[in-house]
Amino acid sequence: MQKLLFLINSLFATLLLVAYLGPIMPPNLGSFFPVLSLFFPYLLFINICFLIFWLVTKPKYIFLPIICLLIGYKAIPRHVSFFDNSEIEKDKTYISVISQNLQAAKYFRKNKRTLDKHKIEEFKSWTSSLDKVDVFCFQEQRYHAKTLIEKGINLPHSHSVDTIGTSIYSAYPFRDKGFVYLGGNTKYAAWADIIFPNETVRVYSVHLSSNMISSKTNVLMQERDLSKSSTWSNINSILARYGKYSGQRQQQLNVLMDHIAKSPHPILLCGDLNDVPQSYIYAKLSENLEDSFTKSKPGIGSTYAGSLPGLRIDYILSDPVLHVVDHKVLPQYFSDHFPIRATLAL
Known about the structure:
- By secondary structure, the chain is α+β, with helices and mostly antiparallel strands.
- It folds into two domains: about 1-75; about 95-210 and about 240-345, 4-Layer Sandwich (Deoxyribonuclease I, Chain A).
- The protein is about 35% helix and about 25% strand.
């Protein structure tokens, strides 16, 4: 039995080792690495479980998961924070930013045409309970979501269009603003040069192409019968779509990075990237930008509240000169994405 388990451990260890290559493998090479990167958190968890199991039952086998985890140790803190890395500096001006994919206000709908008044009040109660927030960035702000935001958020400066989907709301004025056409199935990213105390910052609200697999994933999670051909058809469809839209996100990334490179101001990028920290997309964006999660308290950085738990696909990335001091995932189920909050020192 132990030999069989060791063989299973070897399989998952191999998959984890191959998944370490995800950040350097462009999605346009095929769907294998994007899909494997998606499952990286689960492969990591399985190998940690094997490490604990061998430690208790057969210590001589512990070398396999230990070596595997040590090889990719730099990837682990992008998914799990083991220490309190938040910090507060004296004599600094702080700004607070919240980002969330609102899923077109589906949670708040009474029917297709109107919002539920009680749920609107729930949103207003939540926003009023927050400490001072200087910037809100939203994704999937379509249909009724703009009405919801205008009722729940009292900030004087806004940059949003119902048909665009991405938006920025600010306590501070804009020097300039606009949209970047990224293509894909999410089309646009919003940007605004916001005049903060001591610094003008270009803020982006970004939503990269959706994988379009939520409905099929929900069906798969309910059936779970691998003997049915329909189950395998669903699995194949999910994997194919994920690969397809990963390639689409790579094209969007090229446009976005070109726009970022021309900015005269430090960058603050917020949004739903639809990719995990082990992905090529994240690796490219985080080359010159700091991930606010690196300044979080101990815990898992999961931001997706949908059918695949434990995934972190929403981010706040910033120019290092802005100096992130804190990051939080806020436990509110207003959509299938948790809101995230970062505090930065100017």
